[in-house]
Amino acid sequence: MAGRYAGALFELALEEKATDTVRQELDKFDALIAESPDLNRLVRSPVFGADEQLKALSAILAKAGVSGLTANFLRVITTNRRLFAVRDMIRAYRALVAKNKGEVVAKVTVAEPLNDQNKEALKGALKSVTGGKDIDMDVTIDPAIIGGLIVKVGSRMVDTSLRTKLNSIKIAMKEAR
User: What's the pTM?
Assistant: First the structure.
């Protein structure tokens, strides 16, 4: 379902030559959801009716400066009772934009937010691994990995998280008994 909605939005954005604008606004909305537990609850909870969600969403979008095609899209999915899947739709839209531009999507999981210098260094390293293709990083923050990072590019995955290393040590110690 998320792919169909993202595909429809992508087609409309292509027609209006606004794929980057829509992506930036969707990223802004996604960041708002990630930062606000209340907004996340509003988006995901079936307790709220479509009218309540739409009213709250309209106020949030106006305050965040999200308008035009992106705001209309978010209102449509709210009316259709699909707001709970908006983050999946945003990820699918990002992938469509990246594919259209010839970029490679890298899913990166970190314990703490990356600063700009670390993001650029990681992009540079990933660019060399992918043969010079531009990299679109989808960064997720998960404190449970303790430290390090997990990177997925296509079918390849590199897990340098402390959680994985500690689990490996734990298993090795159990086997040594």
Answer: 0.72
First-to-last C-alpha distance (Å) of the chain: 49
Q: What tokens appear for 144 in the block?
A: 């449970």
Q: Angle 86-101/68-79 helices, nearest 10 degrees? A: 140
91-102 tens-digit pLDDT: 899 889 988 988
Yes or no: say if 108 and 140 are a contact pair by the CB < 8 Å rule: yes
Neighbouring-strand partners of residue 110: 141, 149
| pLDDT, tens digit (0-9, with 9 covering 90-100), for 57-94 | 999 999 888 888 999 999 999 999 998 999 999 989 98
Asked if the model's pLDDT at residue 177 lies above 80, the reply is no
DSSP 8-state code for residue 112: S
Check: CB of residue 43 under 8 Å from CB of residue 33. yes
Residue 145 has pLDDT above 90, yes or no: yes
- In degrees and rounded to multiples of 5, residue 104 shows phi and psi of -110, 135
Instruction: Output the CA–CA distances (angstroms, integers) from residue 117 to 98, 120, 124, 163, in the order listed.
Output: 22, 5, 11, 24
**Distance (Å, whole) CA 116 – CA 93:** 24
Where on the phi/psi map is residue 17: left (φ > 0), alpha (ψ -120 to 50), or beta?
A: left
3-state secondary structure of 161: coil
